[in-house]
Hints:
heterodimer, A: mainly alpha, 4 helices, 0% strand, globular, B: alpha+beta, Alpha-Beta Plaits, five-stranded antiparallel β-sheet, three-stranded antiparallel β-sheet, 5 helices, rod-shaped
Amino acid sequence: MWIPIAAVCLGLIAGYLFYAPFEYIYSGYLAVFLLVSLDTILGGIRSYQENTFDEQNFLSGFVINLIFASGIAFLGLQLGVDLYLAAVFALGVRLFRNLSIIRRHVTDRLKKQKTDH
Amino acid sequence: MTIKRRQISIAVVLFVAGFAVSLTIQSANDAAPATRSDTESSSLQPEEIQDEILAEQEANREIAEEISAVQREIASFEDSIAAREEEHYNQLEDIERLRMITGDIPVSGEGVEIRLDDSDFNEGQDNPNEFIVHERHIQKVVDELYASGAEAVAVNGQRLANDSYIYCVGPVVEVDGYTSFAPFEITAIGDAETLEEAVNLGGGVRDQLVNDNVQVRTDQLNETEMAGLHEEGAAQ
């Protein structure tokens, strides 16, 4: 249990240590990074609740999503179009859907516990 | 083994998530002051207002200096105009005075009238030459009147100018080609009091004339007039 918490803390510290001011146009990458990681976490929680968690799938999905979203953001930057918004939109939708599924799982479990007692 | 790999993969994702969150927070912190200063600069910061006020004051001062410079210029113009006007006024006065002397213009005002007449004498006993008015007597009176500030003088109605002559032609006196005989009335325009005083001065003209057996009578005139020499109706 301590490993995820330590990982988050380490990430925060690393981000604090390696932070360097960057230009505003690169904030698209940051948004994409943030959304991909959050999406992966929520997806992981959901798959864990559904007992379909597979760490390879988990990690590869994270990496591929990250690369593809970054690629879209890079392409948008080169073309002068805010293409990273496409990734942000898709990931955001997925984020909320995963969240709703997780919520349903939790409520289902709580209901089941109530009926059991 | 699988648990460990699972934990590692989760840790990697969480690490990246933490990294991204940290970067986002810091970049937001960085951007916030910048944007705040941006919005404040658009809605006039106190320093900018102060600068603007100072600039306006500077401009106002420059304009005020310009105004005072222009006003100084105007004042100097006015001074020169006033000086010129004074000059013109003086010149006009001079011209007026000179015209009075040359008899070009009519003159009016108070004055005196001096009447010179021959004395009575006994025929065949006395030398009549000593009892009649001579041209030098007239000359003396005229000189005295001019010296006392008379503006215009006339002898028997003949106005005198700067080039007038008084000439003795036997029993009569000729003034500017106009002959007349006793009694001679010499009229002068000027300060009546002064003129009369001048003529009646002790040991003055009157006494000298009386000494030469000339009858002298002086009268002050309240208002008299003399036409210009070259005008219509000038005495001939």
